[in-house]
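Propose amino acids for all 210 sites.
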């Protein structure tokens, strides 16, 4: 009986060792770079596609659409990198200050931050945002670059962007271990709304002769 109990305990320990790291993994640790990457990619995709749809509402020239999208790519990538760097650096300063206050409260004179890996990395977040923005923005640019017919071009941009939004939503849900359908639906509807509003308002303003 004792031998059977020992075997059961050993098997239980083996299972714990095999599945423990996965079960105990804190997926919130991925939040820093995952949030920056997913936000950057979806923002690049939606904002550049919306710009292209807006200019496509009043101009049929493919060159104008591509130049507008490229300008949006460069400006958006720079804006995302700078904004993410400043935001995350501010968050890091707040967390460091709080850790120092906690050390003083606990009577610990050593204020050295020992868990630097747990602090947000502003450079990592800025680079992830910029690179992801560029990758996302390239999707509508490539989709429109080789299509001559204006109507077909707009349709291809919408279809390609929709597919890319679903993929981004699926990737974010996969790495974050969140519901896939909800994530994909949320990002897809948001992208459709942004493109529709930009197209409609630009079309309306263009028709008024402003």
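Proposal:
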């Amino acid at each position: 009986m004792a031998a059977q109990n020992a075997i059961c305990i050993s098997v239980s320990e083996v299972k714990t060792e095999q599945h423990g790291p996965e079960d105990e993994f804190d997926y919130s640790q991925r939040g820093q770079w995952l949030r920056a990457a997913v936000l950057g990619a979806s923002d690049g995709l939606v904002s550049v596609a919306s710009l292209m749809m807006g200019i496509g509402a009043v101009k049929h020239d493919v060159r104008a659409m591509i130049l507008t999208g490229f300008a949006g790519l460069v400006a958006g990538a720079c804006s995302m990198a700078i904004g993410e760097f400043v935001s995350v650096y501010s968050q890091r300063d707040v967390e460091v200050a709080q850790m120092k206050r906690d050390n003083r409260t606990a009577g610990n004179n050593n204020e050295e931050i020992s868990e630097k890996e747990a602090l947000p990395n502003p450079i990592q977040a800025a680079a992830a945002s910029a690179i992801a923005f560029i990758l996302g923005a390239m999707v509508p640019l490539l989709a429109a670059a080789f299509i001559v017919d204006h109507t077909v071009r707009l349709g291809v941009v919408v279809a390609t962007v929709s597919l890319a939004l679903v993929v981004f939503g699926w990737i974010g849900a996969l790495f974050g271990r969140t519901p896939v359908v909800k994530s994909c639906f949320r990002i897809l509807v948001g992208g459709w709304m942004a493109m529709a509003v930009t197209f409609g308002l630009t079309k309306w303003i263009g028709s008024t002769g402003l």
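Residues 1-29 have pLDDT under 50 and may be disordered. Residues 31-205 form one domain.
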